[in-house]
């Protein structure tokens, strides 16, 4: 039962060894530290360095970017690949800021699993909860790492109970901590009956591992003091009675999470977690698409853009579109069809973010993430194939929850502002609406912090100070329906009509009441809070 979660037994070996996942956590739980240790054990870096960018810069930009800057090695933004044993891990970064954004949602469309990191002293915190809900929308398998066990932490049963209660997911311990805080010795590896002892002296060392023949093995007493051993036996007895065993299928559908305990900073428990990711996966999964789904083992290449990042190099205004390969074996120089425009694209300089460096991707397989530099042709939600007109689905654009007007500090620079705004809209960093009456733009985001991030990016990347100001509107809805009905609707509601950066019609309003009224008065017009990117 515990062997590899091979729910897709026909996958070619190159695909079956891929594990594409993201880390979700509340700020400060230890995501950066854990990432660093992944890279260390993945052989990607020699020594875990100091990844300590502080304050806003770190919160608002990707942590990977902060790492890149602070460590002087080129890791990447957005996705990193490294090998662990015979596996290839692709770790996709979730945005570092604390507001839930659709960016996060879309990132999670590119992965097959998520690692949830929680702080043992704090339990399930708000941001973890929000990110977890996003994973739940996609039924993503979750592996949990309870970090900072070297510090005073909460009672382990209490932590598990909190996860079960707050997140409505069953929990099964894969390891069990022995002692807490200063007395923390290590863990009992429940899955393999091993004792893992933490070395406090060397933070980059892999724990000493002692094979144990069940809980009655006298070897245990050689390493664990009597009181702690008694507690361990009692605890494990309760675990056996109260908690469900690891069931791969339940894990794969996202209703059961295995939990490992450890201390990322001490490199402890990290290897076991990586082994868990390798063993339980899952492998690259089937991708939903229209008119048919895409199987990873298909010979032909298909992939979709889940993220666009502009200005990675401020000297060049190029963009990198991050593409998750859904099927096939990609080779550099391939000609792919850009399904939205039906145009061929030669992919001559794709990059892959191997943790040690940003490299030209000579080849990639289903499950991998490649970056394709382009001048704006590739947008979020676009599908690339070897010719077939398939469109990947499930990458929505959400109606923003906060709207503000925006003005350039210098009124003569409004053209520049338009350009900057369009770029951020294409990146998916904000919604930009051009009202049909009057001048100026309305910018929509999901969390307040995004306005600040935008203002600072516009200033930094375009040298353009801007001011956000209250807007008369509070909600936006996309307008759909039969053409004559929509035209009539637009005619009579001009002061509420705007266009998004794709030119799609949007209804802006202050009141939910207005939205209800439209639904009543214009039965042929549909107002929607999401739009599929296409
Ligand atoms: P984040 O990316 O999730 O925001 O967290 P990050 O890894 O930056 O870790 C947040 C803080 O927690 C850091 O401390 C880090 O050193 C510490 N930390 C991470 N893992 C462990 C652990 O296993 N045990 C303990 N005791 N601490 C851990 P900091 O004070 O922000 O930085 P620094 O002073 O340590 O450099």
UniProtKB/TrEMBL annotation:
Identification of the protein by name: Peptide chain release factor 3
Q: Which domain of life is it from?
A: Bacteria
Family designation: Belongs to the TRAFAC class translation factor GTPase superfamily. Classic translation factor GTPase family. PrfC subfamily.
What InterPro entries does the record point to?
EF-G-like_DII (IPR053905), EFG_III/V (IPR035647), G_TR_CS (IPR031157), P-loop_NTPase (IPR027417), PrfC (IPR004548), RF3_C (IPR032090), RF3_dom_3_sf (IPR038467), RF3_GTP-bd (IPR041732)
Q: What positions does the entry give for GTP binding?
A: 25-32, 93-97, 147-150
Q: What is its main location?
A: cytoplasm
Q: What gene name is given for the protein in this entry?
A: prfC
Query: CDD domains per the record?
Result: RF3
Q: Where in the cell is it found?
A: Cytoplasm
Keyword vocabulary terms for this entry? Cytoplasm, GTP-binding, Nucleotide-binding, Protein biosynthesis
Biological role: Increases the formation of ribosomal termination complexes and stimulates activities of RF-1 and RF-2. It binds guanine nucleotides and has strong preference for UGA stop codons. It may interact directly with the ribosome. The stimulation of RF-1 and RF-2 is significantly reduced by GTP and GDP, but not by GMP.
- Segments forming domain Tr-type G: 16-285
List the HAMAP family: Rel_fac_3
